[in-house]
Amino acid sequence: MLTQQPVAQQDISLSSENFNNNISNDNNNKQLWMNAKLFLPPSEQQLDNNNDNNTLHHIEIENGIITNIIKVSNNNTNNTELEQQEQQLLTTHEYQNKNYNKIINLNGKLLLPPFIEPHIHLDTTMTAGQPKWNESGTLFEGIERWSERKKYLTINDVKERAKKVLKLQILNGIQFVRTHIDTTDRELIALKAMIELKEEMKELITIQIVAFPQEGIVSFQGNDCDNNICDNDCDNVGLKLFEKAVAMDGVDVIGGIPHYEFSREDGVESIRHIFKLAKKYNNKLIDIHCDEIDDEQSRFLEVVASETIKNKYQGKVTVSHTTAMGSYNDAYTFKLFRFLKMSNLNFISNPLVNIHLQGRFDSYPKRRGLTRVKELVENGLNVCFGHDDVFDPWYPLGNANMLQVLHMGVHCCQLMGYSELKNALNYITYNSAKTLQIDDNKYGIKIGNEANFIVLNTNDSFSALRFQSEILYNVRKGKNYC
User: Fold this and answer.
1) pLDDT value at 79 more than 80
2) CB of 309 within 8 A of CB of 341?
3) pTM above 0.85, yes or no
4) Is position 203 annotated as part of the catalytic site?
5) What's the rounded Cα separation, in Å, for the pair 183 and 244?
6) Comparing C-alpha atoms, which of 372, 369, 373 is closest to residue 294?
7) Chain-wide mean pLDDT for the chain?
8) Are 357 and 143 in contact (CB under 8 A)?
9) Tens digits of per-residue pLDDT, 247-262?
10) Beta strand pairing status for 471-476 and 453-456?
Protein backbone atom coordinates (compact mmCIF):
# COMPACT_ATOMS: atom_id res chain seq x y z
CA MET A 1 0.00 0.00 0.00
CA LEU A 2 1.25 3.47 -0.88
CA THR A 3 2.13 5.51 2.22
CA GLN A 4 1.48 9.23 2.08
CA GLN A 5 4.22 11.52 3.34
CA PRO A 6 2.81 14.55 5.21
CA VAL A 7 5.89 16.64 4.39
CA ALA A 8 5.02 16.41 0.72
CA GLN A 9 1.81 18.26 1.41
CA GLN A 10 3.38 20.83 3.71
CA ASP A 11 6.51 21.84 1.85
CA ILE A 12 5.07 22.85 -1.48
CA SER A 13 1.29 23.05 -1.38
CA LEU A 14 -0.84 25.75 -2.95
CA SER A 15 -4.60 25.55 -2.98
CA SER A 16 -6.65 26.44 -6.04
CA GLU A 17 -8.48 29.04 -3.97
CA ASN A 18 -5.27 30.84 -3.00
CA PHE A 19 -3.94 30.64 -6.53
CA ASN A 20 -7.09 32.03 -8.09
CA ASN A 21 -7.07 34.94 -5.67
CA ASN A 22 -3.67 35.90 -7.04
CA ILE A 23 -4.85 35.93 -10.64
CA SER A 24 -5.94 39.25 -12.06
CA ASN A 25 -9.10 38.97 -14.15
CA ASP A 26 -8.35 42.41 -15.57
CA ASN A 27 -9.39 42.66 -19.20
CA ASN A 28 -7.91 46.13 -19.77
CA ASN A 29 -7.42 46.77 -23.48
CA LYS A 30 -4.95 49.66 -23.37
CA GLN A 31 -2.09 49.78 -20.89
CA LEU A 32 0.99 51.90 -20.33
CA TRP A 33 3.89 50.45 -18.36
CA MET A 34 6.19 53.35 -17.54
CA ASN A 35 9.86 53.66 -16.62
CA ALA A 36 10.93 50.03 -17.03
CA LYS A 37 14.50 48.82 -17.34
CA LEU A 38 14.79 46.09 -19.94
CA PHE A 39 16.99 43.00 -19.90
CA LEU A 40 18.41 43.07 -23.40
CA PRO A 41 18.49 39.97 -25.65
CA PRO A 42 21.92 38.40 -26.30
CA SER A 43 22.34 40.09 -29.69
CA GLU A 44 22.07 43.52 -28.05
CA GLN A 45 24.14 42.48 -25.05
CA GLN A 46 27.04 41.81 -27.39
CA LEU A 47 26.80 45.33 -28.83
CA ASP A 48 27.14 46.88 -25.38
CA ASN A 49 30.42 46.01 -23.66
CA ASN A 50 29.26 47.46 -20.36
CA ASN A 51 25.70 46.13 -20.75
CA ASP A 52 24.50 48.05 -17.75
CA ASN A 53 21.39 48.96 -19.76
CA ASN A 54 20.18 51.77 -17.56
CA THR A 55 17.88 53.31 -20.16
CA LEU A 56 14.25 53.51 -19.08
CA HIS A 57 11.38 52.63 -21.39
CA HIS A 58 7.63 53.08 -21.63
CA ILE A 59 5.76 50.10 -23.07
CA GLU A 60 2.32 50.42 -24.61
CA ILE A 61 0.03 47.39 -24.80
CA GLU A 62 -3.25 47.04 -26.61
CA ASN A 63 -5.38 43.89 -26.61
CA GLY A 64 -2.48 41.84 -25.26
CA ILE A 65 0.04 43.00 -27.91
CA ILE A 66 3.03 45.32 -27.44
CA THR A 67 2.26 48.28 -29.71
CA ASN A 68 5.04 50.70 -28.81
CA ILE A 69 8.33 50.89 -26.90
CA ILE A 70 9.65 54.37 -26.10
CA LYS A 71 13.09 55.19 -24.71
CA VAL A 72 12.68 57.96 -22.16
CA SER A 73 15.78 58.42 -19.98
CA ASN A 74 18.97 57.00 -18.52
CA ASN A 75 19.93 55.98 -15.02
CA ASN A 76 20.81 59.54 -14.00
CA THR A 77 17.13 60.44 -13.86
CA ASN A 78 15.87 60.86 -10.30
CA ASN A 79 12.36 60.18 -9.03
CA THR A 80 11.29 63.84 -9.30
CA GLU A 81 12.38 63.98 -12.93
CA LEU A 82 10.57 60.71 -13.62
CA GLU A 83 7.37 62.16 -12.20
CA GLN A 84 7.77 65.27 -14.35
CA GLN A 85 8.34 63.14 -17.45
CA GLU A 86 5.29 61.08 -16.61
CA GLN A 87 3.12 64.18 -16.29
CA GLN A 88 4.49 65.65 -19.52
CA LEU A 89 3.84 62.42 -21.36
CA LEU A 90 0.30 61.99 -20.13
CA THR A 91 -0.69 65.59 -20.86
CA THR A 92 0.42 65.48 -24.50
CA HIS A 93 -2.42 65.42 -26.99
CA GLU A 94 -1.27 62.07 -28.42
CA TYR A 95 -1.45 60.23 -25.12
CA GLN A 96 -4.60 61.97 -23.81
CA ASN A 97 -6.48 60.51 -26.77
CA LYS A 98 -5.36 56.97 -26.01
CA ASN A 99 -7.55 56.60 -22.91
CA TYR A 100 -5.40 54.05 -21.11
CA ASN A 101 -7.33 51.60 -18.96
CA LYS A 102 -4.22 51.02 -16.83
CA ILE A 103 -1.04 52.99 -16.17
CA ILE A 104 1.71 51.40 -14.07
CA ASN A 105 4.87 53.27 -13.15
CA LEU A 106 7.63 50.73 -12.53
CA ASN A 107 10.12 53.36 -11.32
CA GLY A 108 13.09 51.63 -12.90
CA LYS A 109 12.21 48.02 -12.02
CA LEU A 110 13.58 45.30 -14.29
CA LEU A 111 11.21 44.07 -17.01
CA LEU A 112 12.18 40.99 -19.02
CA PRO A 113 10.68 38.08 -20.94
CA PRO A 114 9.19 35.40 -18.69
CA PHE A 115 11.31 32.68 -17.14
CA ILE A 116 11.32 29.32 -18.89
CA GLU A 117 11.58 25.87 -17.36
CA PRO A 118 13.27 23.80 -20.10
CA HIS A 119 13.57 20.54 -18.18
CA ILE A 120 11.29 19.16 -15.48
CA HIS A 121 9.44 15.92 -14.69
CA LEU A 122 5.93 17.00 -13.73
CA ASP A 123 4.62 13.43 -13.58
CA THR A 124 7.00 12.51 -10.74
CA THR A 125 6.78 15.71 -8.74
CA MET A 126 5.55 15.64 -5.14
CA THR A 127 6.26 11.91 -4.71
CA ALA A 128 9.40 11.98 -2.54
CA GLY A 129 9.19 9.27 0.09
CA GLN A 130 6.42 7.37 -1.69
CA PRO A 131 6.59 4.51 -1.01
CA LYS A 132 10.19 4.89 0.22
CA TRP A 133 12.87 7.58 0.26
CA ASN A 134 15.90 7.54 -2.00
CA GLU A 135 18.40 7.13 0.82
CA SER A 136 21.48 6.65 -1.36
CA GLY A 137 20.85 9.83 -3.33
CA THR A 138 21.76 8.13 -6.61
CA LEU A 139 20.08 8.41 -9.98
CA PHE A 140 19.60 4.67 -10.08
CA GLU A 141 17.82 4.36 -6.73
CA GLY A 142 15.64 7.26 -7.84
CA ILE A 143 14.56 5.27 -10.91
CA GLU A 144 13.91 2.24 -8.69
CA ARG A 145 11.78 4.28 -6.24
CA TRP A 146 9.81 5.84 -9.11
CA SER A 147 9.22 2.40 -10.65
CA GLU A 148 7.58 1.41 -7.36
CA ARG A 149 5.54 4.62 -7.11
CA LYS A 150 4.14 4.60 -10.64
CA LYS A 151 2.19 1.42 -9.91
CA TYR A 152 -0.22 3.69 -8.03
CA LEU A 153 -0.66 6.31 -10.75
CA THR A 154 -4.10 7.54 -11.73
CA ILE A 155 -5.09 10.37 -14.04
CA ASN A 156 -6.24 12.52 -11.11
CA ASP A 157 -3.14 11.73 -9.04
CA VAL A 158 -0.82 12.94 -11.80
CA LYS A 159 -2.88 16.03 -12.62
CA GLU A 160 -3.29 17.16 -9.03
CA ARG A 161 0.42 16.90 -8.25
CA ALA A 162 1.55 18.47 -11.49
CA LYS A 163 -0.94 21.31 -11.17
CA LYS A 164 0.46 22.29 -7.77
CA VAL A 165 3.91 22.75 -9.25
CA LEU A 166 2.59 24.50 -12.36
CA LYS A 167 0.87 27.02 -10.10
CA LEU A 168 4.11 27.60 -8.24
CA GLN A 169 5.89 28.05 -11.55
CA ILE A 170 3.40 30.71 -12.62
CA LEU A 171 3.84 32.60 -9.35
CA ASN A 172 7.60 32.32 -9.89
CA GLY A 173 7.37 34.03 -13.29
CA ILE A 174 7.50 30.94 -15.54
CA GLN A 175 5.29 30.93 -18.64
CA PHE A 176 6.85 28.16 -20.74
CA VAL A 177 7.63 24.62 -19.56
CA ARG A 178 9.11 21.53 -21.19
CA THR A 179 8.23 18.46 -19.15
CA HIS A 180 9.49 14.90 -19.64
CA ILE A 181 6.74 12.33 -19.03
CA ASP A 182 7.54 8.68 -18.39
CA THR A 183 6.25 6.38 -21.13
CA THR A 184 7.45 3.08 -19.64
CA ASP A 185 3.97 2.40 -18.29
CA ARG A 186 1.90 0.26 -20.61
CA GLU A 187 -1.27 2.26 -19.83
CA LEU A 188 0.55 5.59 -20.43
CA ILE A 189 -1.40 7.05 -17.53
CA ALA A 190 0.97 9.92 -16.78
CA LEU A 191 1.18 10.89 -20.45
CA LYS A 192 -2.60 10.94 -20.87
CA ALA A 193 -2.97 13.00 -17.70
CA MET A 194 -0.40 15.59 -18.77
CA ILE A 195 -1.92 15.94 -22.24
CA GLU A 196 -5.23 16.78 -20.55
CA LEU A 197 -3.57 19.23 -18.17
CA LYS A 198 -1.64 20.89 -20.99
CA GLU A 199 -4.94 21.81 -22.63
CA GLU A 200 -6.62 22.84 -19.39
CA MET A 201 -3.86 25.29 -18.43
CA LYS A 202 -2.87 26.64 -21.85
CA GLU A 203 -4.13 30.15 -21.12
CA LEU A 204 -1.89 30.37 -18.04
CA ILE A 205 1.22 28.51 -19.13
CA THR A 206 2.54 26.84 -22.30
CA ILE A 207 3.58 23.22 -21.83
CA GLN A 208 5.74 21.14 -24.16
CA ILE A 209 5.48 17.40 -23.51
CA VAL A 210 8.41 15.04 -24.07
CA ALA A 211 7.68 11.34 -24.48
CA PHE A 212 10.39 10.05 -22.16
CA PRO A 213 11.20 6.31 -21.85
CA GLN A 214 12.48 6.37 -18.27
CA GLU A 215 13.41 2.68 -18.24
CA GLY A 216 14.74 2.56 -21.79
CA ILE A 217 13.45 1.85 -25.30
CA VAL A 218 15.37 -1.22 -26.47
CA SER A 219 15.92 -2.70 -23.00
CA PHE A 220 12.46 -2.14 -21.53
CA GLN A 221 10.36 -5.29 -21.51
CA GLY A 222 7.49 -4.27 -19.24
CA ASN A 223 6.13 -6.20 -16.32
CA ASP A 224 4.13 -8.62 -18.44
CA CYS A 225 3.12 -9.17 -22.04
CA ASP A 226 0.38 -7.00 -23.52
CA ASN A 227 -0.61 -8.18 -26.99
CA ASN A 228 -2.23 -4.82 -27.70
CA ILE A 229 1.25 -3.32 -27.61
CA CYS A 230 3.68 -5.97 -28.79
CA ASP A 231 1.53 -7.99 -31.26
CA ASN A 232 3.14 -11.14 -29.85
CA ASP A 233 6.59 -9.70 -30.67
CA CYS A 234 7.58 -9.26 -27.05
CA ASP A 235 11.23 -8.61 -27.86
CA ASN A 236 10.20 -5.16 -29.13
CA VAL A 237 7.64 -4.22 -26.50
CA GLY A 238 9.65 -1.20 -25.33
CA LEU A 239 9.94 0.26 -28.82
CA LYS A 240 6.29 -0.43 -29.67
CA LEU A 241 5.10 1.20 -26.45
CA PHE A 242 7.36 4.16 -27.07
CA GLU A 243 6.06 4.67 -30.61
CA LYS A 244 2.51 4.48 -29.32
CA ALA A 245 3.36 7.33 -26.93
CA VAL A 246 5.18 9.40 -29.56
CA ALA A 247 2.20 9.16 -31.93
CA MET A 248 -0.27 10.63 -29.41
CA ASP A 249 -1.70 14.08 -30.07
CA GLY A 250 -0.21 16.49 -27.56
CA VAL A 251 3.30 15.02 -27.58
CA ASP A 252 5.70 17.69 -28.86
CA VAL A 253 9.16 16.22 -28.31
CA ILE A 254 10.80 12.80 -28.40
CA GLY A 255 13.07 11.81 -25.51
CA GLY A 256 15.47 9.01 -24.67
CA ILE A 257 17.93 7.71 -22.10
CA PRO A 258 20.67 5.73 -23.92
CA HIS A 259 23.00 5.45 -20.91
CA TYR A 260 20.31 3.48 -19.04
CA GLU A 261 19.92 0.85 -21.79
CA PHE A 262 21.47 -2.56 -21.09
CA SER A 263 24.53 -2.08 -23.28
CA ARG A 264 26.42 0.39 -25.42
CA GLU A 265 24.91 -1.27 -28.49
CA ASP A 266 21.37 -0.96 -27.10
CA GLY A 267 21.98 2.70 -26.30
CA VAL A 268 23.17 3.45 -29.84
CA GLU A 269 20.21 1.55 -31.28
CA SER A 270 17.80 3.57 -29.09
CA ILE A 271 19.22 6.84 -30.43
CA ARG A 272 18.71 5.73 -34.01
CA HIS A 273 15.11 4.76 -33.22
CA ILE A 274 14.57 8.24 -31.75
CA PHE A 275 15.65 9.98 -34.95
CA LYS A 276 13.57 7.66 -37.13
CA LEU A 277 10.47 8.33 -35.03
CA ALA A 278 11.09 12.08 -34.99
CA LYS A 279 11.16 12.17 -38.78
CA LYS A 280 8.21 9.79 -39.08
CA TYR A 281 6.00 11.91 -36.81
CA ASN A 282 6.07 15.42 -38.29
CA ASN A 283 9.75 16.13 -37.64
CA LYS A 284 9.25 16.50 -33.92
CA LEU A 285 11.91 18.02 -31.73
CA ILE A 286 14.27 15.72 -29.82
CA ASP A 287 15.44 16.07 -26.21
CA ILE A 288 17.55 13.17 -24.90
CA HIS A 289 18.73 12.48 -21.36
CA CYS A 290 22.31 11.86 -22.37
CA ASP A 291 25.26 10.52 -20.37
CA GLU A 292 23.82 11.39 -16.96
CA ILE A 293 26.50 9.39 -15.21
CA ASP A 294 30.03 9.94 -13.93
CA ASP A 295 31.42 7.24 -16.23
CA GLU A 296 34.01 8.77 -18.57
CA GLN A 297 33.29 5.89 -20.98
CA SER A 298 29.67 6.96 -21.42
CA ARG A 299 29.93 8.64 -24.81
CA PHE A 300 26.45 8.69 -26.31
CA LEU A 301 26.78 12.43 -26.90
CA GLU A 302 29.01 11.74 -29.89
CA VAL A 303 26.35 9.42 -31.29
CA VAL A 304 23.60 12.03 -30.87
CA ALA A 305 25.78 14.66 -32.56
CA SER A 306 26.59 12.28 -35.41
CA GLU A 307 22.96 11.31 -35.98
CA THR A 308 21.95 14.98 -35.86
CA ILE A 309 24.40 15.81 -38.64
CA LYS A 310 23.51 12.75 -40.75
CA ASN A 311 19.78 13.47 -40.44
CA LYS A 312 20.23 17.22 -41.06
CA TYR A 313 18.48 17.91 -37.75
CA GLN A 314 20.71 20.77 -36.58
CA GLY A 315 19.05 23.11 -34.09
CA LYS A 316 16.18 20.72 -33.35
CA VAL A 317 18.02 18.42 -30.94
CA THR A 318 18.66 18.97 -27.24
CA VAL A 319 20.88 16.93 -24.95
CA SER A 320 20.06 17.15 -21.27
CA HIS A 321 22.53 16.60 -18.43
CA THR A 322 25.64 15.29 -20.33
CA THR A 323 27.31 15.07 -16.92
CA ALA A 324 29.84 12.49 -18.14
CA MET A 325 31.47 15.31 -20.09
CA GLY A 326 32.81 16.56 -16.79
CA SER A 327 34.82 13.34 -16.61
CA TYR A 328 36.07 13.20 -20.21
CA ASN A 329 39.77 13.70 -20.80
CA ASP A 330 40.67 16.96 -22.52
CA ALA A 331 42.06 15.35 -25.68
CA TYR A 332 38.78 13.54 -26.36
CA THR A 333 36.75 16.63 -25.46
CA PHE A 334 38.75 18.75 -27.91
CA LYS A 335 37.88 16.29 -30.68
CA LEU A 336 34.25 16.14 -29.56
CA PHE A 337 33.70 19.90 -29.65
CA ARG A 338 34.51 20.05 -33.36
CA PHE A 339 31.38 18.15 -34.35
CA LEU A 340 29.28 19.40 -31.45
CA LYS A 341 29.51 22.77 -33.17
CA MET A 342 28.66 21.14 -36.51
CA SER A 343 25.56 19.55 -34.97
CA ASN A 344 24.36 22.79 -33.34
CA LEU A 345 22.97 20.92 -30.35
CA ASN A 346 21.18 22.65 -27.49
CA PHE A 347 22.40 21.75 -23.99
CA ILE A 348 20.47 21.72 -20.74
CA SER A 349 22.31 21.55 -17.43
CA ASN A 350 20.38 20.84 -14.24
CA PRO A 351 22.70 22.10 -11.50
CA LEU A 352 20.45 21.65 -8.45
CA VAL A 353 19.78 18.00 -9.13
CA ASN A 354 23.09 16.89 -10.66
CA ILE A 355 25.21 18.43 -7.91
CA HIS A 356 23.10 16.23 -5.62
CA LEU A 357 22.98 13.00 -7.68
CA GLN A 358 26.44 12.85 -9.20
CA GLY A 359 29.72 12.00 -7.51
CA ARG A 360 27.95 9.43 -5.34
CA PHE A 361 30.42 6.69 -6.24
CA ASP A 362 33.49 8.87 -5.67
CA SER A 363 35.46 8.93 -2.47
CA TYR A 364 37.81 11.93 -2.89
CA PRO A 365 38.44 13.91 -4.96
CA LYS A 366 34.65 14.07 -5.52
CA ARG A 367 33.44 15.30 -8.90
CA ARG A 368 30.85 18.05 -9.25
CA GLY A 369 29.06 15.95 -11.86
CA LEU A 370 28.11 18.76 -14.22
CA THR A 371 28.67 19.25 -17.91
CA ARG A 372 31.24 21.75 -19.23
CA VAL A 373 28.94 24.77 -19.34
CA LYS A 374 31.64 27.42 -19.58
CA GLU A 375 33.44 25.67 -22.43
CA LEU A 376 30.20 25.01 -24.32
CA VAL A 377 29.27 28.69 -24.14
CA GLU A 378 32.74 29.79 -25.20
CA ASN A 379 32.39 27.57 -28.26
CA GLY A 380 29.12 29.23 -29.27
CA LEU A 381 26.77 26.42 -28.24
CA ASN A 382 23.40 27.17 -26.68
CA VAL A 383 23.13 26.25 -22.98
CA CYS A 384 20.26 26.71 -20.56
CA PHE A 385 19.48 25.65 -16.99
CA GLY A 386 16.59 23.51 -15.75
CA HIS A 387 15.17 22.55 -12.37
CA ASP A 388 14.68 18.88 -13.36
CA ASP A 389 12.85 17.67 -10.26
CA VAL A 390 10.71 19.09 -7.46
CA PHE A 391 10.26 16.94 -4.35
CA ASP A 392 10.46 13.53 -6.04
CA PRO A 393 12.59 10.37 -5.84
CA TRP A 394 15.58 12.15 -7.41
CA TYR A 395 15.45 15.43 -5.50
CA PRO A 396 13.87 15.88 -2.05
CA LEU A 397 13.81 19.70 -2.24
CA GLY A 398 12.84 22.30 -4.84
CA ASN A 399 10.35 25.16 -5.08
CA ALA A 400 10.08 25.73 -8.86
CA ASN A 401 12.12 28.93 -8.63
CA MET A 402 14.39 29.42 -11.64
CA LEU A 403 16.48 32.05 -9.86
CA GLN A 404 17.43 29.38 -7.34
CA VAL A 405 18.48 27.10 -10.20
CA LEU A 406 20.52 29.89 -11.73
CA HIS A 407 22.16 30.75 -8.41
CA MET A 408 23.37 27.17 -8.01
CA GLY A 409 24.42 27.00 -11.66
CA VAL A 410 26.71 30.03 -11.68
CA HIS A 411 28.45 28.73 -8.56
CA CYS A 412 28.93 25.13 -9.64
CA CYS A 413 29.94 26.04 -13.21
CA GLN A 414 32.19 28.88 -12.03
CA LEU A 415 30.38 31.52 -14.06
CA MET A 416 31.25 34.21 -11.52
CA GLY A 417 32.93 36.89 -13.60
CA TYR A 418 31.01 40.18 -13.61
CA SER A 419 30.13 39.96 -17.31
CA GLU A 420 28.98 36.36 -16.80
CA LEU A 421 26.81 37.27 -13.81
CA LYS A 422 25.09 40.29 -15.33
CA ASN A 423 24.13 38.22 -18.41
CA ALA A 424 23.34 35.03 -16.46
CA LEU A 425 19.57 35.49 -16.81
CA ASN A 426 20.08 34.31 -20.40
CA TYR A 427 20.30 30.74 -19.06
CA ILE A 428 16.68 30.84 -17.88
CA THR A 429 15.22 33.15 -20.54
CA TYR A 430 16.53 33.68 -24.08
CA ASN A 431 18.70 30.53 -24.25
CA SER A 432 15.79 28.38 -23.11
CA ALA A 433 13.48 30.03 -25.66
CA LYS A 434 15.91 28.96 -28.37
CA THR A 435 15.97 25.40 -27.03
CA LEU A 436 12.16 25.17 -26.94
CA GLN A 437 11.91 26.94 -30.33
CA ILE A 438 9.29 29.33 -28.99
CA ASP A 439 7.73 31.47 -31.72
CA ASP A 440 9.44 34.85 -32.03
CA ASN A 441 6.11 36.68 -31.70
CA LYS A 442 5.45 35.05 -28.33
CA TYR A 443 8.81 35.72 -26.68
CA GLY A 444 10.82 38.88 -26.29
CA ILE A 445 10.03 42.53 -25.61
CA LYS A 446 9.39 43.71 -29.17
CA ILE A 447 6.72 45.73 -30.94
CA GLY A 448 4.13 43.37 -32.39
CA ASN A 449 4.85 40.58 -29.90
CA GLU A 450 2.40 39.22 -27.39
CA ALA A 451 2.73 41.12 -24.11
CA ASN A 452 4.39 38.28 -22.22
CA PHE A 453 6.80 39.53 -19.58
CA ILE A 454 7.69 39.60 -15.90
CA VAL A 455 8.79 42.42 -13.62
CA LEU A 456 11.33 41.78 -10.85
CA ASN A 457 11.70 43.81 -7.68
CA THR A 458 15.15 45.04 -8.63
CA ASN A 459 16.80 47.53 -10.97
CA ASP A 460 19.33 45.32 -12.75
CA SER A 461 20.08 41.73 -13.74
CA PHE A 462 23.11 41.42 -11.44
CA SER A 463 21.02 42.27 -8.37
CA ALA A 464 18.20 39.99 -9.54
CA LEU A 465 20.56 37.05 -9.24
CA ARG A 466 22.35 38.23 -6.13
CA PHE A 467 19.20 38.94 -4.10
CA GLN A 468 16.92 36.33 -5.74
CA SER A 469 14.45 39.11 -6.47
CA GLU A 470 10.73 38.52 -6.08
CA ILE A 471 8.32 38.55 -9.00
CA LEU A 472 6.14 41.69 -8.94
CA TYR A 473 4.19 40.98 -12.13
CA ASN A 474 3.79 37.98 -14.41
CA VAL A 475 2.01 39.33 -17.49
CA ARG A 476 0.72 37.01 -20.20
CA LYS A 477 -1.07 38.47 -23.21
CA GLY A 478 -1.51 41.66 -21.23
CA LYS A 479 -3.02 40.05 -18.12
CA ASN A 480 -1.23 39.81 -14.79
CA TYR A 481 -1.16 36.40 -13.14
CA CYS A 482 0.98 37.16 -10.11
Assistant:
1) no
2) no
3) yes
4) no
5) 9
6) 369
7) 90
8) no
9) 999 999 999 999 999 9
10) antiparallel
